[in-house]
Structures are given as structure tokens and as C-alpha cells.
């Protein structure tokens, strides 16, 4: 038993050290991380910046600053204010791009074209508050009472959607998860099949199997390539979260993000175990790399079907299809993490889905190892499952 | 000592082995000879545990072979196989570890072996960048790295030039001297005769002869009488057993495995000048031809 684990780890280490050095792996890792890191930046590019420079000309305008500063955090923007001697200086600074807008004492808001929408709204709000307060005081009301009356708490925002308060962002996160899980699963699992065929086609498997058992060889391969896939997933998630923090988007992330991430990792492992066992069994039927993709078709079809359902679950996390298939293995491995990201899912459903998936993984691993064991030494023409299964018994 | 007893194996309708037995003692070099399809590879795969026999048994040091015992064996399969993209030194060391060596042991054994086989300069190259001859050496290194207790090599000499043949023969002889039983298959009988202590001849899944080379050659009924007569009268051998062939220079050679040698000698003397007369042991090639015929 001990030596079984030691042997599998030996095989896994070889897989990792050989594969991790290939250009394909490094490029894939860098590219996927970059892609995901770029995503939080995109809304920024289209939504404009969230820090603005505002010029103030004259004493009356200057009174705007505290009011605007008080409003800014609510809109999640930061403001910097500059005092300017006259309107000409404001003109020049705006034209040069140093200022986004400037407020002039006689009640005008200068900008290069229309002011940015959220900045305009904020300055108008601040202006209205300051003016209202001054006019009330001018009308002879007790300044203290005026200040008191002006302190209006904002409306509390409450969502009535079942998806929770941050459904937009959650859907985005879920969508990202679907894509990431799909691509990482399919690439890791294809690696397993290609590795199996490499060893079978080059006949090295005959040599390997004189010193270790087929289960150890297959297990080690699945373990090693799975570790690399998991590493890739962690890197992608870290890149996404890091970028979200850096761009200030992290505040928009749904509560329970940690749970969503950990869940995604766990479901990735389950899905990977299932599909890689399937891929290894199918891969062991052929001896040439050119035949890999065709022999993997049943598995790719299943995985793509899971992907499509998961994709649908992003938009309809509470739909019947999503609810049912999030319990059925192997669909659950992609649909459930997406559902939990997109909406709140009862814990018992997650538990049932995980249990069923674990059972399915056990069945597929056992059957896959059997098929592999009996097929991997039979080089030459492509084998059919029918050729292999009786011998496997 | 390695023993195989009454091995039977069939693939569908093809019967590959019909009761193969062999025995290789410590320090003995055993040549396994047979035509294509005779069952050599099947037998060696069964010894290495890659294939299970339908019936029969393989024993190592008197016990049925266990996985642990097999881990100590070294094997060169007929279908050579290496990781093409893996570096030479890493690959040899990896196999050392698969055979149960620690990382340090594997590393030092790999270094020594690469030195011995002239691979040191290629240590960091991927196997695919090596010439075929060097790839063969890596294949051999992979079989030897863990200092095997038994060596099983399937057609190790095929495709080698004469110098490489000698080099490989020397490496194998070295293992033998260290007390390791070595078994290799070949269809180059002269090579087997030159290198081996023992030989097994297999035809159509049956061992037709096995044992020390001298014993096999001397086996009863295999000796043949060779008579060389110069300028004999025509038809001198009519009525004598065996075959007569002309040897140019007016010589005729009679060969037979049966008959009264004294009567034959008398007949030959009457016919002409007898230049040679004697019972001879057959060469392995002759035994082999006879077995295959
Ligand atoms: N995997 C296999 N499937 C079917 N027949 C096989 C297989 N391997 C070997 N045979 C058959 O078994 C017989 C013995 O083959 P083999 O052991 O390879 O002989 P050798 O190594 O002496 O050339 C041959 O008739 C061969 O065609
Ligand atoms: Mg052969």
C-alpha cells in the first residue's frame, strides 16, 4: 500500500516536472491568468475612471468641496480639488486634460464637452445641497436646525431578487467560473489521454509495467496532471481576485466569495477525477496521437453538454433544468459551482450533488482503470470497448 | 535461478506457447533461439509479468515470482520504448527510482552507467535528439540502472553493428560474471553459440532443445557422420544411408546420422582415398534447421 502511493507519487512527479517545463503549459498558464486579470479592468475602460480632478474658481464654489466630498464615497468615486484664480486658468487646465471639470462662482460647470455622467450628477447634488442650506439660512431659519434638517439618510437599497442583492456581479463571477472550469478541465483531461497514448504508442508502457502496476501508473499520471490543472485554476482565480482588488472592483464581489472559490476548487477536482478516468480509459484504446481526439469524442461531448447547461445556469440559476442537473453527475461538477456562484443554493442540495458525484467518480475510476489495464498493452489497431471489457473481468 | 515450467498461452485462435520450460542459473548466459513467431517474446513477457500465462508457472529462486522480486529484474522489450522528450540522465534515473532506488542511489548509478556506456556528454539531451545507436544504449542503461538480479533482453543485438555487438556482449558478460542470470533472444545463432553457456531452441511454441550448449550439440541422435572421399568411383554410395554432396576438387562428402560406421568406412575406402572420417556434433544452426523443418 505504502509503495503504491510512493510509486504513484513518483509517476506524478515525473508528469509535473516534464509538463511544467513545456512551453505549452507556461504559455497557457500566463495567458489564462492575464485574460482573467484583464476582465475586471474592462468595465473600467468603458465606464471611465472613478477618480476625478475638479477645479474650483471663487469662494462660493469652494463651499461645494465639503458637500461633494461627503457624497463621493457613496458613488465609489474619489475626488481631488484644485483652487484656481480665474476662469481662464480653469479653461486652460480642462483643455490640457489636467481637470475633468471646474465649477465657477456664477453657477456654471465647465467641462470638455459634457462632464462625465457620475461626476456631473455628484457635483449637481452637492451644489443643490449647499444652495438649499444657504437659502434656508437666508430665509431666517436657525442655522443649527437647518444643518440638522439637511442631514437626510440615503435610501437603503434592498433587492427582492432571489439571486440576492448583487446578482449582476454574481452572474459575472459565475460566467467566469464556467469558462475557466470548462477550459481547464478539457485541457487537463486531454493531457491525461495524450499521456496514456504516448506511453502506449511508444511501447514504454511495457517497460513501466514490469516495475509498477497499471493502477499506480494511471493514478500517478492523473494525480500529476491534476495538480498542474489545480495550480492553473488557483493562478487564474488569484489573478482575477488580485485584479479585482487592484481596480477597486473587489467591493462589488458577492459576499461568501471565499466559499464560492473553495467550492469551485473542490468541484474542479471531482470533475477532473471523473473526466480524466474516462479520458484515460478511452485513450488506452488507441495507439496513435492522431486518434486521440476521435476516441475522446464521447467524453468531450459529455463535457460540452455540461458546459452548455452550466452556461444556461448562469442566467437561470433557479430554473428546473439547472436545479436538476446540478445534482446529476457529471453535470453537477460544472453546474453546481455555477449555481452557487450565481445564486444561493440550499446546503442539502450541494451535499446530495457532492455525494452522487463522489459515487460516480468511484465507479468511473474503477471501470476506467480496468479498461486501461487490459487495453494499454494491446498496441496496434484501435480497440473497441467490447474487445476490452470481457478481458477486464 | 529462473525457472519456467509448462507455459501455455493462446491469443484467440493462435496458440503461441504449448508447454515452454526453461531454466537459467546464476551467472549463466542463456540464448533463446527461434524463428519469428516461435514464441520467444511471449515467453519473455510472461517472465517479466507483463503477460499472464494461461497455465504454467515462472519461479525465481524457487518461489513463484512476486511483484517485489520482479522489481529487481532488468528488461529490454522487443519493442523499444523511451520517453522521447525526456532527458537522458533524468530518464535513466527515473527508471532507477521505479525499480525502488532512492534518489541518491539512482543518481549515482545513472552517472556511472552513462560513463560506462559513453553517454555522459548527452546527459542533458532529450532522447529524441540522440542517434539510434545512442538510443539503444539508453535503452540498455534503463535495463541495467538498478543493478538487476536477472536480465531479460528481447533481441538486444538486432540492428547493432559488429562493434556495438561486441560492446553489448561485454556488458552482458560482465553482469554474468557478477552472478546475474542473463537471458536474451536472438535469431543470430552464431552469436548465441559464441556468447552463451546455455541455449533454448523454440519452434512453434515448443522447446525443441534446451540446456548447456555442449550438451545440446552432443545430444543423442544429433551427431552425424561425415566422410570425405577423394575421386570416388561413381555410384560408390549407392546403398549407403545419408546424403552425398560434391565439394569441388573431386571430393565428395557423405553425411548421415545413422547406419554402421564401419561398413560405411569400408565402402568409402574401396571407392577412393578417405580424407576425413568422423562423428561430429551438429552446429546450433543445423539443430535449428532440423527443428524448424
Ligand atoms: N498480442 C498478440 N495477439 C495475437 N497474437 C499474438 C500476439 N502476440 C504474439 N502473437 C502470436 O503469437 C505467436 C508467438 O509470437 P512471439 O512470442 O512474438 O514470437 P517471437 O518473439 O518468437 O517472434 C505468433 O504466432 C504471434 O503472431
Ligand atoms: Mg519476438
Key attributes of the depicted protein:
heterodimer, A: 393 residues, mainly alpha, D-Maltodextrin-Binding Protein, domain 2, four-stranded mixed β-sheet, 18 helices, 4 strands, 6% strand, elongated, B: 293 residues, alpha/beta, 2 domains, six-stranded mixed β-sheet, 10 helices, binds adenosine-5'-diphosphate, binds magnesium ion, ABC-type transporter activity (chain A), ABC2_TM (chain A)
Any overview of this molecule?
Chain A: It is a multi-pass membrane protein. By secondary structure, chain A is mainly α. Chain A has 2 domains: 3-42 and 166-392, no CATH class; 49-150, Periplasmic binding protein-like II (D-Maltodextrin-Binding Protein, domain 2). Helices cover 69% and strands 6% of the residues of chain A. Chain A has a 4-stranded mixed sheet, sandwiched between helices. In chain A, a hairpin with a 3-residue loop joins strand 3 and strand 4 (108-111). The longest helix of chain A is centred in the middle third of the chain and has 35 residues, at 167-201. Chain A is elongated and about 95 Å long. The model of chain A has no long low-confidence stretch (mean pLDDT 85). Chain B has 293 residues and is of the alpha/beta class. Chain B has helices at 40-47, 67-71, 88-98, 103-117, 132-144, 162-177, 189-195, 213-218, 261-271, 284-292, and strands at residues 2-11, 14-24, 29-34, 55-60, 63-64, 73-76, 150-153, 182-186, 198-203, 206-212, 224-230, 243-246, 251-256, 273-280. In chain B, the strands form 3 sheets. Chain B has a 6-stranded mixed sheet, with helices on both faces. In chain B, strands 2-1-4-5 form a 4-stranded antiparallel sheet, with helices on one face. Chain B has a 4-stranded antiparallel sheet with strand order 12-13-11-14, with helices on one face. In chain B, helix 3 packs across helix 4 and helix 4 crosses helix 5. Chain B is elongated, with a radius of gyration of 24 Å. The mean pLDDT of chain B is 91. At the A-B interface, helix 1 and helix 10 of A face helix 2 and helix 3 of B. The structure holds adenosine-5'-diphosphate (ADP) and magnesium ion. The site of magnesium ion has 3 residues of chain B, from helix 1.
Amino acid at each position: 500500500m505504502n509503495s503504491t502511493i510512493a510509486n504513484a507519487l513518483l509517476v506524478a512527479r515525473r508528469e509535473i516536472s516534464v509538463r511544467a517545463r513545456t512551453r505549452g503549459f507556461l504559455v497557457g498558464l500566463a495567458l489564462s491568468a492575464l485574460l482573467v486579470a484583464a476582465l475586471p479592468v474592462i468595465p473600467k475602460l468603458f465606464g471611465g475612471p472613478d477618480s476625478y480632478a475638479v477645479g474650483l474658481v471663487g469662494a462660493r464654489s469652494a463651499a461645494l468641496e465639503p458637500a461633494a466630498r461627503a457624497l463621493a464615497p457613496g458613488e465609489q468615486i474619489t475626488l481631488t480639488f484644485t483652487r484656481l484664480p480665474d476662469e481662464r486658468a480653469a479653461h486652460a487646465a480642462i483643455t490640457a486634460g489636467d481637470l475633468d471639470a471646474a465649477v465657477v462662482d456664477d453657477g456654471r460647470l465647465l467641462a470638455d464637452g459634457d462632464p462625465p455622467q457620475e461626476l456631473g450628477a455628484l457635483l449637481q447634488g452637492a451644489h443643490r445641497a449647499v444652495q438649499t442650506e444657504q437659502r434656508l439660512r437666508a430665509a431666517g431659519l436657525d442655522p443649527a436646525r437647518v444643518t440638522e434638517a439637511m442631514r437626510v439618510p440615503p435610501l437603503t437599497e434592498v433587492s427582492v431578487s432571489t439571486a440576492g442583492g448583487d446578482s449582476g456581479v454574481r452572474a459575472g463571477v459565475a460566467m467566469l467560473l464556467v469558462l475557466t472550469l470548462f477550459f481547464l478541465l478539457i485541457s487537463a483531461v486531454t493531457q491525461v489521454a495524450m499521456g496514456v497514448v504516448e506511453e502506449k504508442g511508444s511501447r514504454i508502457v511495457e517497460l513501466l509495467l514490469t516495475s509498477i502496476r497499471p493502477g499506480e501508473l494511471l493514478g500517478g499520471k492523473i494525480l500529476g496532471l491534476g495538480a498542474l490543472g489545480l495550480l492553473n485554476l488557483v493562478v487564474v482565480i488569484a489573478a482575477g481576485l488580485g485584479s479585482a482588488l487592484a481596480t477597486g472592483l473587489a467591493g462589488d464581489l458577492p459576499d461568501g466569495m471565499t466559499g464560492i472559490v473553495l467550492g469551485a476548487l473542490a468541484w474542479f477536482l471531482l470533475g477532473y477525477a471523473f473526466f480524466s478516468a474516462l479520458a484515460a480509459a478511452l485513450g488506452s484504446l488507441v495507439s496513435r496521437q492522431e486518434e486521440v481526439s476521435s476516441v475522446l469524442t464521447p467524453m468531450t461531448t459529455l463535457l460540452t453538454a455540461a458546459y452548455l447547461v452550466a452556461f444556461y445556469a448562469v442566467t437561470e440559476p433557479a430554473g428546473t433544468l439547472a436545479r436538476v442537473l446540478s445534482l446529476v453527475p457529471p453535470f453537477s461538477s460544472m453546474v453546481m459551482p455555477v449555481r452557487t456562484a450565481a445564486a444561493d443554493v440550499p446546503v442539502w442540495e450541494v451535499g446530495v450533488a457532492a455525494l452522487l458525484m463522489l459515487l460516480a467518480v468511484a465507479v468511473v475510476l474503477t471501470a476506467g482503470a480496468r479498461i486501461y489495464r487490459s487495453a494499454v498493452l494491446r498496441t496496434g489497431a484501435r480497440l473497441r470497448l467490447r474487445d476490452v471489457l470481457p478481458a477486464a473481468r | 535461478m529462473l525457472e519456467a515450467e509448462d507455459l501455455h498461452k493462446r491469443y484467440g485462435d493462435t496458440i503461441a506457447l504449448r508447454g515452454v520450460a526453461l531454466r537459467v542459473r546464476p551467472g549463466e548466459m542463456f540464448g533463446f533461439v527461434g524463428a519469428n513467431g516461435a514464441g520467444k517474446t511471449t515467453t519473455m513477457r510472461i517472465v517479466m509479468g507483463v503477460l499472464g500465462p494461461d497455465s504454467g508457472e515462472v519461479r525465481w529462486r524457487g518461489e513463484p515470482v512476486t511483484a517485489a522480486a520482479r522489481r529487481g529484474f532488468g528488461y529490454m522489450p522487443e519493442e523499444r520504448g523511451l520517453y522521447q522528450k525526456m532527458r537522458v540522465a533524468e530518464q535513466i534515473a527515473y527508471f532507477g527510482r521505479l525499480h525502488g532506488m532512492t534518489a541518491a542511489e539512482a543518481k549515482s548509478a545513472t552517472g556511472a552507467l552513462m560513463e560506462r556506456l559513453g553517454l555522459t556528454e548527452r546527459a542533458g539531451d532529450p532522447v529524441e535528439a540522440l542517434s539510434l545507436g545512442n538510443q539503444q544504449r539508453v535503452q540498455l542503461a534503463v535495463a541495467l540502472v538498478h543493478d538487476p538480479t536477472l536480465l531479460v533482453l528481447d533481441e538486444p543485438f538486432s540492428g547493432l553493428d559488429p562493434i556495438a555487438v561486441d560492446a553489448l556482449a561485454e556488458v552482458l558478460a560482465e553482469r554474468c560474471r557478477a552472478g546475474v542470470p542473463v537471458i536474451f533472444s536472438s535469431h543470430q545463432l552464431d552469436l548465441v553459440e559464441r556468447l552463451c553457456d546455455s541455449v533454448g531452441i523454440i519452434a512453434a511454441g515448443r522447446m525443441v532443445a534446451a540446456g548447456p550448449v555442449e550438451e545440446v550439440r552432443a545430444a543423442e541422435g544429433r551427431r552425424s557422420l561425415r566422410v570425405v572421399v577423394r575421386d570416388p568411383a561413381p555410384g560408390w554410395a549407392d546403398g549407403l544411408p545419408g546424403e552425398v554432396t560434391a565439394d569441388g576438387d573431386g571430393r565428395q562428402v557423405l553425411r548421415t546420422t545413422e547406419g554402421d560406421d564401419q561398413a560405411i568406412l569400408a565402402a568409402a575406402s574401396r571407392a577412393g582415398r578417405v580424407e576425413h572420417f568422423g562423428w561430429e556434433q551438429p552446429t546450433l544452426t543445423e539443430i535449428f534447421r532440423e527443428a524448424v523443418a
